[in-house]
Amino acid sequence: MPFEPFTRLTAHIAPLRASNIDTDVIMPKIFLKGIDRKGLDAGVFHDLRFLPNGTPDPKFVLNRAPWTEARFLVAGDNFGCGSSREHAVWGLLQLGIRAIIAPSFAGIFFDNCARNGLLAIEAGSDDVDHIMDHARAGAKVTIDLPAQTIETVGSTIAFDISERRKFMLMNGLDAVGLTLKRRDEIAAFEASYLAERGWLTEPERIDR
Amino acid sequence: MPAPKTLYDKLVESHRVCSLGENDDELLLYVDRTVLNEYTSPQAFTGLREAGRRVWRPETALGVVDHVNSTRPDRDVLLNEERDIQSAYFAKNCTDFGIELFDLFHRQQGIEHVVMPELGLILPGEVIAAGDSHTTTYGAFGSLGFGIGTSDIEHLLATQTLVYRRLKNMLIRIDGVLPVGITAKDVIMAVIREIGASGATGFAVEFAGPAISGFSMEGRMTICNMAVECGARGALMAPDETTFRYIEGRPRAPRGAQLHAARESWSRLRSDPGATFERTVEIDAAEIEPMVTWGTSPDQAAPISASIPNPDDEPDADRKRDASRALTYMGLEPGAALSSIRIDHAFIGSCTNARIEDLRAAATVLSGRKVAAGVKAIIVPGSSEVRRQAETEGLDRIFLDAGFEWRQSGCSMCLAMNDDVIAPGKRCASSTNRNFEGRQGAGARTHLMSPAMVAAAAVAGHLCDVRTLGTA
Questions:
Q1: Do B147 and A108 touch (CB under 8 A)?
Q2: Which pLDDT score, from 0 to 100, does residue B77 have?
Q3: Which of B261, B265, B267, B192 is nearest to B225 (CA)?
Q4: CB neighbours (10 Å) of residue B183?
């Protein structure tokens, strides 16, 4: 599905210091029972955001000013590990989160971000610590995707991103449509691949 | 002479349709096969419908209901009352797009990663991507398996390909001889503890060494399955005679001349001597003990003989804070023996450890013994086929006599998306793969371990070393 392009944005950034923040915590299972992408903002960090009686937990960072306005997150190592559930990314976007900065991301989560226009930035540990300090002080940062920079008060941090990923994010592009332009190339590959591997297409199957 | 290649390099190369970047790090990867479940696929099908797209090769996909369904023994008579909105939409999608479906009432229903290998659908040299992180299981066959999100499921269904980022190569060698009573689960838990929950992020991991080749396919699948818990997005083992013997004769596996041709090709699926691995980890099998987790990340684990660690002993500030937070969630005090931790639940199940060999190991421990008072214990077989096999062998009687519930198949209490949910503050010895906060229910506390260790904990009422059960 096409999504909102990302170019340049200035906003508050919420600090989530822990490592290994997993997708079970980002999007608990009770929000995974639907067949569409709607209403997932209610599920984001649900068990941390809300007390057992359903009221917001005043201690959780996203419930505290100024981070109630946060559009970015800065987190510890291995953000988004665990389950492949893309609901975690859909929910974060619906909550208004547009970018996440961390020393590393789990692979599936990182790809899910790119497919939906959530900018996942892998930054060095020192840079993350620096941004974390800014975040905790309540300062805003500016993320500029074309320039590949994160601007804080008094510093500009460069980040890496693949050219293809950057292009897709900046243009809000649906990958399926792009790939289908290579339909003939895929079909030609497939024909020769399968011709060399008869057992993949003509198994002498028995049924029980 | 061409440069020596790793098994991973060979698999990527044989499935590379074309490059998408300047340096070939991003490429279009051809995918042989996928398996779909009811909870991560719906939005992918909706995407296809909205764009008016068809499925490229529907015969390479199989739909299996496993995540949300009940595993109660009497579910078969509940019929359509059980049919939730996801299963209903899943059935419609499979019908409309020409995909074979194993629904809840199908004779072969089970957990996707148990069903696929037992049908003979996982073959060496294949690339298999699916909407579940534990798709790494299939690496046990020398095939590249990895989890994808829903957008990529849609991409895969529409194009038979994925936009793929090449991984780095890691080799994990398990040398030496495994002590008696040490299982594949203990090995992978020891690996995860050693390299950390993100230790293999960005890598495809090849497992090698005598301890690996000595494992059955069930044991190898357990290791590759859980490799994702240290971040690996591909876990590989070179196929050998054990692999070929497992595949031969399975219902959907190639036979006769086709099998002969396939084996010829499969025998070349191994890393070349001198192939480059960016990282190598060596672990001595002889030093591995039965492992249990004490925290809320799979790398927060220790041998059962150890004590609950003190976060103050941790030099790294981040790890110290994470450990401290985990112990608070788990309701544990540093310094106490791990074997003193009392449990409320025992769960044997999941795509990690609910194959027939796992059930046999549990039955060996439970034979002639009873579950301790106050422990609710359930066994959920990995597939309906495993359930039938266990009943043929009489294992169900052993489980029932010991006081375990004997269930139908599904993911069940591994992620508690069905009605098998643990109450806040309750503690579970679990043969599953994730001990995250809230994984088995909000506030629930999970200790991961092997099926035999779960069985031992169920009998003792507390975590304990299965090797000394009843002798202490």
A1: yes
A2: 58
A3: B192
A4: 26
At residue A47, the pLDDT reads 95
ipTM attached to this prediction:
0.94
Q: Are B450 and B290 in contact (CB under 8 A)?
A: yes
* CA distance linking residue B146 with residue B134, whole number of Å: 7
Predicted confidence (pLDDT) per residue in B60-103, tens digit = 999 999 998 989 888 865 554 445 889 999 999 999 999 999 99
- As given in the structure block, the two tokens for residue B93 are 């999608």
Nearest to A205 among B20, B85, B251 (CB): B251
What dotted CATH number matches B1-289?
Answer: 3.30.499.10
Q: Which residue from A176, A198, A205 is facing B158, i.e. has the nearest CB?
A: A176
State mean pLDDT over B260-273.
96
Q: Cα–Cα distances in Å, from B146 out to B129, B132, B266, B298?
A: 5, 8, 20, 19
Per-window interface: A 60-79 vs B, CB < 8 A: 76-78
Residues carrying CATH 3.30.499.10, chain B: 1-289, 291-468
pLDDT band at A205 (very low <50, low <70, confident <90, very high): very low
In chain A, what are the domains?
8-173 (3.20.19.10)
Q: Which comes out higher in pLDDT, residue B141 or A204?
A: B141
Closest residue of chain B to A47, computed from CA coordinates = B442
A204 contacts in chain B (CB < 8 Å): 254-256, 258
Cα end-to-end distance, chain B, whole Å = 60
For A40-82, write each residue's pLDDT tens digit. Answer: 999 999 999 999 999 999 999 999 999 999 999 999 999 999 9
% of chain A residues with pLDDT over 70: 97
State which H helix or E strand residue B173 sits in: strand B168-175
Identify which of B403, B407, B342 has the alpha carbon closest to the alpha carbon of residue B370: B403
Whether residues B165 and A24 touch (CB distance < 8 A) is answered with no
Characterize the bridge pairing of strands B301-303 and B291-293. Answer: antiparallel
Contact: A107, B231; criterion CB under 8 Å: yes
Best mutation target, B93, B143, B151, to test chain A (most A CBs within 10 A): B151
Q: Which residues of B touch A207 (CB under 8 A)?
A: 251
Q: How many Cβ atoms sit within 10 Å of the Cβ of residue B383? A: 30
Question: Is A125 touching B (CB cutoff 8 A)?
Answer: no
- Under CATH, to which class is B291-468 assigned? alpha beta
Distance CA A176, CA A131 (A): 35
Contacts A39 to B, Cβ<8 Å: none
- Measured between CA atoms, the residue of chain A closest to residue B319 is A19
Interface touch A106/B89, C-beta < 8 Å: no
Query: Chain A to chain B, count of Cβ pairs less than 8 Å apart?
Result: 208
Q: Give the integer Cα–Cα distance in Å for A73 and A136.
A: 11
Instruction: Give the whole-angstrom CA distance, residue B299 versus residue B301.
Output: 5
Q: Tokens standing for B186?
A: 């203990």
- C-alpha pair distances (Å), B154 with each of A5, A24, B54: 20, 22, 10
The continuous run of DSSP H or E covering B116 comes out as helix B112-119
User: How many beta carbons lie within 10 A of that of residue B334, not counting itself?
Assistant: 15
Q: How far from chain centre, in Å, is Cα A135?
A: 19
Q: Which residue of A has its CA nearest to B135?
A: A84
- Backbone angle region of B165, left / alpha / beta, with phi > 0 → left and psi within -120 to 50 → alpha: beta
Phi-psi region of B78 (alpha: psi -120 to 50; beta: other; left: phi over 0): alpha
Q: Collapsing DSSP states into helix, strand and coil, what is residue B301?
A: strand
